[in-house]
Design goal:
The protein is of the alpha/beta class. Helix content is 40%, strand content 22%. Helix 7 crosses helix 8, helix 7 runs parallel beside helix 11 and helix 7 crosses helix 13.
Length: 439
């Protein structure tokens, strides 16, 4: 399984741009299980355009850039000018490698501004050799691997690290199961809410066992190829090649072989089983790093953004229709501790309070309701917790004998469950939309 990286090189001089490009290509070829995509820009405008349209992980940025490199008298822009534009993408996690002659006056200010956005930062000279670039490349790789994943995955990775040797196997298997559910929820919501693509057969979660979720996921990743680039998270389809499917099937065989009684086996056996699958597990985990590009967030508060509204009306006074601007207060559901990194942003997209959304680099949003929720459902829970759909059940009314369907949610944190009858109609509606896409 391969870790994919996308790095943008921003350098106005073609010689230096090509030199960095070739050196980075040579470095990537020497490292196993890594696939590097390199993009290039000769000025800040080109760079911003690429940032808006590609899931970039890191930027190698020259500090001083000619607006028109072909013109010797061209005006100059400085890397610091990109800060304001990058602030619109503060929900993304970028790594900035600044290339410049060292100047204490602007260096610390630029570094602090980048870090205040939550981005990674490093520095190298204009005449870096292959060894220096190699160390910087490794820093970028480490940054990508360590970027926070969505809470359910980040929290389970934390549990793996702190668990005893005999308990790690249980946590590792749970991590893969939650990964299957999370990826399924994203693709399912993408088709249902955005109404794109078609599938080859109807989705049936069965009894909502692991096998049922995996069958649904295999159907969803076979979406017709022409919609691949329009998917909210296109990397999911790239993620599924033969080795990944084989790993999921291997994991399913482990679950079928040992069932839920694995914790009754001798600790030494469980520890040896964890050691056996650890290399493949690490590759699988690293391959999921693309999910860190898509922040998971909850909308905490919504209000009309009057400033954006007035500015928009000023420049569009002749239009008959007006789409309001909203100001959202959000909390991040990334990393193993949530909520974190409270943030605010403005958008003309109408989002709903207390609902969980996935964001992308285009400032688009995908609702993951009702698959995922972050709430305090009852006094049994001491605070808000992160829930994922566990199953859909039938409930019988004691008075009338009538049966109704309800959703059972399970907390990733406490493993407690609660049932919800309010969301079932939305879930069944989305299931109907997806199954209407069968060709």
């Amino acid at each position: 399984m391969t870790l994919k990286l996308t790095i943008l090189i921003v350098e106005d001089e073609k010689f230096h741009r090509d030199d960095i490009y070739n050196k980075m290509c040579n470095l990537a070829e020497k490292v196993e299980h890594q696939e590097l995509q390199l993009l290039t820009a000769s000025n800040l405008d080109e760079a911003i355009d690429l940032i808006e349209h590609h899931p970039i992980d890191a930027i190698i940025l020259d500090y001083k850039l000619a607006e028109n490199p072909q013109d010797k008298n061209s005006s100059v822009k400085y890397a610091s000018e990109i800060i304001e534009q990058l602030s619109e993408y503060s929900h993304r996690s970028l790594y900035i490698l600044l290339r410049s002659q060292y100047n204490e006056q602007y260096f610390y200010e630029f570094r602090d501004n980048i870090r205040n956005l939550g981005f990674g930062f490093d520095f190298c000279g204009k005449k870096e050799d292959s060894f220096e670039l190699y160390t910087k490349y490794n820093s970028i790789v480490d940054w990508v691997k360590e970027k926070p994943l969505p809470y359910p995955l980040a929290y389970l990775l934390h549990l793996i690290e702190v668990a005893s040797d005999s308990e790690k196997i249980l946590k590792m298997l749970n991590f893969v199961e939650i990964s299957i559910r999370y990826l399924t929820a994203i693709l399912f919501a993408d088709i249902a809410y955005r109404k794109i693509g078609s599938i080859e057969q109807k989705i049936d979660f069965g009894n909502y066992t692991l096998g049922g979720w995996l069958r649904a996921l295999k159907i969803l990743v076979k979406l017709n190829k022409e919609v691949n680039k329009n998917l909210f998270v296109p990397e999911i389809k790239d993620f599924f090649f033969n080795e990944t499917i084989e790993y999921f099937d291997y994991f399913l065989c482990l679950r079928n072989q040992y069932g839920h009684s694995l914790n009754t086996y001798e600790p030494s056996f469980r520890a040896s089983l964890a050691d056996k699958i650890r290399p493949r597990f690490n590759q699988f985990k690293d391959r999921l790093c693309f999910l860190s590009r898509y922040p998971l967030l909850i909308i905490e508060n919504t209000q009309i953004d009057e400033d954006k509204r007035n500015l928009w009306l000023k420049y569009h006074e002749n239009l008959n229709e007006y789409t309001p601007w909203y100001k959202y207060d959000t909390n991040s559901l990334m990393s193993s501790t949530i909520p974190s990194n409270r943030n605010s942003f403005a958008s003309q997209v109408n989002l709903f309070e207390n609902k969980v959304y996935l964001a992308n680099w285009k400032n688009e949003f995908l609702s993951l309701h009702p698959f995922i929720s972050f709430q305090h459902p009852s006094p049994e829970f001491t605070s808000r917790e992160f829930f994922m759909i566990d199953s859909v059940k039938s409930e019988t009314n004691e008075k009338t004998g009538a049966k109704t369907k309800i959703i059972s949610y399970r907390s990733v944190f406490s493993n407690k469950t609660f049932t919800n009858s309010k969301d079932i109609n939305e879930f069944l509606r989305l299931l109907s939309i997806v199954n209407s896409k069968v060709i």
